[in-house]
Amino acid sequence: MNKSGQKDIIKVKKFGEDMGESIPFSEVYRNYKNSEYQRLEEEEIPPNMKEIVKKYFIKLDE
Predict the structure, then answer these.
(1) 32 vs 3, 7, 56, CA distance in Å?
(2) CB 38 within 8 A of CB 24
(3) H or E element: which one contains 15?
(4) Which uninterrupted H or E stretch holds 49?
(5) How far apart are the first and last CA of the chain?
(6) How far apart are CA 60 and CA 62, in angstroms?
(7) In whole angstroms, what is the distance from residue 10 CA to residue 6 CA?
(8) Domain ranges in the chain?
């Protein structure tokens, strides 16, 4: 809680069913990449920002 009495809440997505379960990085990365590409199509994002996001993932895939 901050000084003005407001709370900051951060929502996180849970991967896996069991506590401590590990998921391969490639699967997590693929899910994240697909999710972000979907958002690029669904949300109003300036075209130059879309290109930056796409270039980011292309660079990570190298």
Answers:
(1) 34, 27, 13
(2) no
(3) none
(4) helix 47-61
(5) 42
(6) 6
(7) 13
(8) 25-61
Distances (CA, A) of 54 to 18, 38, 48: 33, 12, 10
In this prediction the pTM is 0.55
Q: What is the pLDDT of residues 12-29, one digit of tens each?
A: 666 666 666 778 888 888
Enter the tokens of residue 45: 């994002």
Sequence letter at residue 28: V
- pLDDT at residue 14, rounded to an integer: 64
Question: Residue 62 corresponds to which amino acid?
Answer: E
CA–CA separation, 50 and 48 (whole Å):
5
State the Cα–Cα distance between residues 3 and 6, nearest whole angstrom: 7
**Token duo for residue 5:** 């009495």
Q: What's the residue count for the chain?
A: 62
Q: What is the largest CA-CA distance in the chain?
A: 46
